[in-house]
Amino acid sequence: MNIILLGPPGSGKGTQAKRLEQRRGMRQLATGDMLRAATASGSELGLRVKAIMDSGQLVPDDVIIAMIAQRIGEPDCRNGFTLDGFPRTVPQAQALDDMLARRELGLDHVILIEVDEAALIDRLSGRFSCAKCGASYHERHHRPRIEGVCDICGSREFVHRPDDRPEAVTARFEVYRRQTAPILPYYRERGILRVVDGMMAIDEVAREIDRILG
Ligand code: AMP
Annotated catalytic sites, by residue? Predict the structure, then answer.
């Protein structure tokens, strides 16, 4: 099964995509994670996109489309995949249709995770993650069980995303409203868009997504 998780920054797409990977073997394809890996490695692509990402703006469509077109053809995607953070513009949604058609792949569901903006600002402003394994935490809602030690891998190093600073968060919401929300009608008209209440607890959102996937 191939699906898209849509939703504003902080709505929980990554968390839910990781769960689908664990439970159903559907590969998480997170364009933001791919780009962060590129910036961390200091590759030419990473150097090109870092300032754009830090400011909360979108990386050019052609860069992202080429990245995903190559990725969905790899063997670990044969069991299905969850697109997390892609598409984010109408041209990306159209390019996705083309690349799926070329590979004779389908799109089973597009799931929009809705969360109100005040809750998103609270989530993003306290978010941090383990520098080693990427496990995510929150300063107020989800601290590591032992202060300063990652629950999952025991590392003592944590990082904050540069684009979780308030100025960048404001820009990311604006970009979502202006460039990403217009792709919703594209999928609604095709009858494959489903909406999930992302204000619920993580487990409940996961159950709701499971119900949709069947
Ligand atoms: P995310 O981790 O999904 O919040 O993405 C972090 C940042 O990576 C975004 O704010 C963009 O700068 C960039 N990015 C990720 N996915 C895309 C995409 N599909 N199109 C353009 N830029 C993207």
Answer: 13, 88, 127, 161, 172
Q: Who's near 55: CB < 8 A, 6+ residues apart?
A: 163, 168, 171
Q: What does the alpha-carbon distance between residue 145 and residue 204 come to, in Å, rounded to a whole number?
A: 22
pLDDT-above-90 percentage for the chain: 94
State pTM to two decimals.
Answer: 0.94
Tokens of 50: 């870092």
Query: What pLDDT does residue 134 have?
Result: 86
Q: Note whether 145 and 151 are within 8 A (CB).
A: yes
pLDDT value for 45:
94
**Three-state DSSP state, 28:** strand
Helix, strand, or coil here: 23? helix
Q: Which atom of ligand 1 is nearest to the CA of 87?
A: 19
Inter-residue contact 111 to 83 (CB < 8 Å): no
Yes or no: say if 66 and 60 are a contact pair by the CB < 8 Å rule.
no
Q: Which of 28, 53, 99 to mutate to test the pocket of ligand 1 (most atoms within 8 A of CB)?
A: 53
SS (H, E, C) 91-112: HHHHHHHHHHHHCCCCCCEEEE
Residue 9 clears pLDDT 90, i.e. is over it: yes
SS3 195: strand
CA geometry: angle 110, 117, 205, nearest 5 deg: 45
Residue found by looking up tokens 């058609």 in the block: 101
